[in-house]
Amino acid sequence: MDKAVQLCFRVTLALSVILTLCLSIQAQSSSSTVYHQVEGRLKVGNNPAVNVRVRIMRETERRPIAETFSRSRGEFEFRYVTEGDYIIETFETDQLEASSTILHVRPFPREIPTSFRVDIDIAVKVAPRVEVGVVMADVDINVPKEALKHYRAGMKALGDDKSDHAIAELQEAVKTYSEYYAARLQLGRELRRLKRSKEAEEILRPLNDIAPKRVEARIEYGIALLELQRRSEAAESLLAAVQLEEANWVAHFYLGWALLEERAEEAEHHLKRALELDKTRAVRAYLALARIANARGERERAIEYLDAYVATDPNAADAEQARQLAKRLRTSNREDKITSP
Q1: Averaged over 190-210, what is the pLDDT?
Q2: pTM assigned to the model
Q3: What tens digit of pLDDT does each residue of 229-254 get?
Q4: Distance (Å, rounded) from C-alpha 221 to C-alpha 184?
Q5: Distances (CA, A) of 275 to 39, 51, 69, 286, 289
Q6: Which of 78, 147, 174, 313 sits in a 20 to 30 Å window from 297, CA-based?
Q7: CATH code at 43?
Q8: What is the number of domains present in the chain?
Q9: 65 phi and psi, to 5 degrees?
Q10: Is the pLDDT score of 17 beyond 80?
């Protein structure tokens, strides 16, 4: 789930004073940085693919940088993209397959801001699998035009970095059509990004009834609950997500953090599973595993996890802090505690 998990894909998890875990990607800028723009269009045959979640990530790091939804003509855009090689991913839906497209952002001359164009053809699922006895109702197929108008305006505002306007438009979309899945999902994400977790939880909660079989809805709601420190409720929602899609690293990752305080053994299982599924994007699971090992008195194991974190993501904002903690654990005779908020 694409800056997903995307994404991603934003819960602050810390190693107390020693380690600060930052789930959001911090953009580094300088006066010499040249930003480019990626403009794209999603298609299904000759028709636009609308309301499809799409994200961009660096090919080498496979870490989400930004995400959005395709608009009325299937178009999407990403601004402030620096030179490099990228992967553009679209997410699987009930009707469409996921896709992955490589894009090389290599402007010439390099110092001139450039717009890069990419068209992506998405494959339709040949025979979607439906569980016996379960009626899979699609979402957002009867959205009123007025609600759709506000949703599109909100998505455009998000693309223009006008958060307040985007929230207002998405709220109007939800007010006009309370079962608007995409509008609630995007509004909840934006509210969480602004640390308005209680509002996000209220917006996301109805998704459990609107789209009970959508993994993404369960995950987003679980993350909102986790940010509110309602860990047992978060674990319930995230466990439902895992049961719907066992091979979803995001669900396992956040479920591990939700269980960490009270049910460390179960948390350990899910954190390890997240790493099995996607070691690069679930890299911060190593920090939680280090905490579990340290609490058990398994200092060498804790050091191994910290070393693995640094080796996997040596340029992480807290990589140096992880190195220093591992060093302290190697040399100190006293017990250095690893904690989360």
Answers
A1: 91
A2: 0.59
A3: 999 999 999 999 999 889 889 899 99
A4: 11
A5: 32, 30, 27, 8, 11
A6: 313
A7: 2.60.40.10
A8: 2
A9: -105, -40
A10: no
